[in-house]
Specification:
Blueprint (H helix, E strand, L loop, with lengths): L1 H88 L1
Length: 90
Amino acid sequence: MNKFRNKLLSLTIVCALSMFFSQFYLIKQVSDVKETNQRQQLELTVYKDELKRAQQNIQFFTEKNRELRGQNNFLESQNKMLMDKNEVAE
């Protein structure tokens, strides 16, 4: 009977140690996942900021492009008017 108790106690100790190390491993995994998640959240924030700046640049250059087109159209009309006056003068 004493041998049985010793074997049972040994088995209990092995199971307890196994559970302890399993919990330790799971806690470590959870910690790693949290760190990865925090890093990805930071990267996402950086990417969102970069996207916002890119959208602002696109809007700025779109407005500049419209402005320059307007100036170009005006200059083309002035050029045509001057060319027409030149043809009449000749």
